[in-house]
Amino acid sequence: MNMDNVRKLARLIADNPYNVFFTGAGASTESGIPDYRSEGSGLWNRIDSSKLISLKGFLENPKGFYEVFSGGLFAPFAHAEPNVAHMFIAMLEEQKASKAVITQNIDGLHRKAGSFNICELHGSMETSSCIICGKSFSTAEVFDKFMLDGATPECTCGNIVKPDIVFFGESLPKDVLEESFELAAGCTLMIVAGSSLEVMPANLLPKYAKDHGALLVIINKTETPLDYTADIVINKGIGEVFTELNNIWKTAE
Questions:
Q1: Binding site per annotation, positions
Q2: 140 is in which domain, residue-wise?
Q3: For residue 201, is the peptide bond before it cis, meaning its omega torsion is within 30 degrees of 0?
Q4: Confidence (pLDDT) at 246
Q5: What is the pLDDT of residue 44?
Q6: Known catalytic residues?
Q7: Mean pLDDT calculated for residue range 125-152
């Protein structure tokens, strides 16, 4: 690893407390959460996303969604623990050395690590809601019940219960998206961690930050469409980079 770039990043974070992290699937793979597009292991290689996690497909066959996810896909979300990246980001927020984290992830690991100022662009798998009355449920409890009785999860009002994640065919939560763009416009440093920057409209945020004067750092195993405009690019695994960042940060304290 080019340690010079990691040291530069640590210095940029220290010099820019109004920084914002932007995390994608690569930030959670070391916690056992599958990413979406990796050849062979990506989630989209294992399920028909157009049927199972599109809003139309879910409403037509909600039981099919629960059957597939209870067969092993939900377990990683239920049992995952934060890794060094989640913990480092939460530590910076606690120290007032970071403003917020914007995430494409639905696993809730930033909150579990202790972050408070989180914009979950694609929702959270931690909770579920009735599609009509909005009553909230623990997703873990919803799946536990489904695995016991095999019945399509329903609210007490008799309508279907759906995880609080953004399915294909749904818009991103307007308030979360607006807050994310405000954070991007106001930050002086944006750090992308583990995102291929291929999913619209989330992938507009780093460029938006850059266009508003922020420095841009991209940490990702593979190249992204915004590498050309970034101030620092680190093509390494999230765990490796954040372990070094954490060591540098603590040594400097």
A1: 130, 133, 155, 157
A2: 36-79+124-165
A3: yes
A4: 96
A5: 45
A6: 122
A7: 96
